[in-house]
Amino acid sequence: MKPILETERLLLREFTIEDGQLLIDLNSNPNVTRYTGDGPVKNLEAANDILLNTIFPQYLNKLGRWASTFKINQ
Fold first, then answer.
1. 48 Cβ contact list (under 8 Å, min separation 6)
2. Domain interval for residue 21
3. Of 1, 8, 10, 11, which has the most beta carbons under 10 Å away?
């Protein structure tokens, strides 16, 4: 895990390959996809494909999507 920003209650970090289910959960929420323009992610294989071929390459240019976590849940 590579932290990007950390506050007392929040951690912003790069996605990891272990976040496939998180991506499925996020993209099943129409309130999320209405802003991203993404569609639902049907399964873990599709989620891993998005992580490997879309999200991870963005980090090479210091851009991309970040996973946010409430620290009280850790």
1. 17, 20
2. 3-73
3. 11
2: confidence class by pLDDT, cuts 50, 70, 90? confident
Structural domains counted in the chain: 1
- List, for residues 19-54, the tens digit of each pLDDT value: 999 999 999 999 988 888 888 899 999 999 999 999
Report how far residue 9's alpha carbon sits from residue 18's, in angstroms, rounded to the nearest whole number. Answer: 22
d(Cα 44, Cα 3) in Å, to the nearest integer? Answer: 24
Q: Is 16 left (phi over 0), alpha (psi -120 to 50) or beta?
A: beta
Q: Minimal CA–CA distance to 28: which of 13, 16, 14, 38? A: 38
Residue 68, number of CB atoms within 10 A of its CB: 11
